[in-house]
Design goal:
The chain has no helices and 10 strands. The chain has 104 residues and is mostly beta strands. The strands form 3 sheets. Strands 1-2-9-5 form a 4-stranded antiparallel beta sheet, with no helix packed on it. A 4-stranded antiparallel beta sheet has the order 6-7-4-10, with no helix packed on it. A two-stranded antiparallel ribbon has the order 3-8. The N and C termini lie close together (9 Å).
Length: 104
């Protein structure tokens, strides 16, 4: 089984907020393996101080996020689009260092 997560900052989706900036990130999760995968969990790595303020197609569980599409099972050859809004406090620019890995 093999699941990938590709993360990109959405172009034109950076917003000034009272305590810094927020950026929308899109995540494409794909199962290009030979078997369905249960309980696909996304692990988000953020720069110090950054927080997730909202998300879609995932359910938060502490610092991890479980895919909610396909009732927790990602069939072979399928793709799920998920995403996050991340707040970067006390800055006017989006720092590097945001990444998403997959735990299965």
């Amino acid at each position: 089984c093999h699941v990938n997560a590709a993360t990109t900052a959405r172009s034109g989706a950076t917003y000034q907020v009272s305590n810094g900036i927020e950026q929308i990130y899109d995540v494409v999760v794909s199962n290009d393996g030979s078997c369905a995968v249960n309980n696909v969990i996304l692990n988000i790595q953020l720069p110090a101080g950054a927080t997730v303020t909202s998300s879609w197609n995932v359910q938060a569980n502490g610092g991890l996020y479980t895919l909610t599409s396909y009732e927790g099972t990602l069939p072979v050859g399928n793709i799920v689009n998920a995403g996050f809004v991340i707040n970067f406090p006390n800055t006017n620019t989006v720092p590097s260092g945001v990444s998403v890995s997959v735990d299965t």
